[in-house]
Design a protein that fits this description.
The protein is an alpha/beta fold. 49% of the residues lie in helices and 13% in strands. A 6-stranded parallel β-sheet has the order 3-2-1-4-5-6, with helices on both faces.
Length: 299
Amino acid sequence: MSEDQVPVGFIGLGQIGGPMAKRLRDWPGGLTVFDVFTEATEPFARRGITVASSPAEVAQKARVISVMVRDDAQVESVLCGTDGILSTATPGTVVAIHSTVEADTPARLAERAAAHGVHVIDAPVSGGAIGAHGGTLALMVGGSDEAVDLARGPLERLGTLVAHLGPVGAGTRAKLARNLITFASFVAVGEATRLAEAAGVDLALLGDVVRHSDKVTGGPGSVMLRATTAPLPTADGLHDIFVHTRGLGEKDLSLAIALGEDLGLDMAVARLALDRLADSLGVPHTATPADTDTPGADR
């Protein structure tokens, strides 16, 4: 059986899972779907796609199965429950967990699945509903080379970046780090908009400015260029660029803090950012072993 003839399944057809599954509707090997809510499966049934009555029935028909349910308990139930995937899965089946779960859950479930000859990979996604509808998600994948290769065809239908980050669990750890950036930045946005509002700035137009400039600069991801979090040696090509960034950032954060103080605002996020910016960029103000140990470093 060729790679694109492998039958696939999708369990969990919610806000993200539903659009993801739609990317597989014309998969040559066929698609089987399941959701506990009948209304979620109706659009698939109308197109003649097989709707299963349980995860076990999905596993009877599919060899690569995506799971996009709410939390750890639901993932475990779908995989290991009485009517779960493992009760009927053929050895060699690959189960891709797209749900964001606890860091150790994928490896724990992979061990249980291995007793049935079933591979588990974790493949959480980034890009939200827009990315799910457009097939432009980023998938952060953890698992063996063999299992990831078996699932790669269907995964590539779901997103434009399939990043195999390491063994099972690596994808989930990456997703937790990715979401830290997202939600911590939301806190910074809250403080920034309070500052802007108190200063009489039009918040809607400020939002336009932020979205516009992030498209140009790449936003927080634009500084994620280092292979390690260790301080940058002075000979590194990024060093002087990040020192310049540090100087601009510290100046602008200090100005924002001063404005906040004038307006009677608590600028906790800005103060923390000012305190940690240099270390976060890898260019602390104090000399580091990385500087002194680097032959030919430009002083």
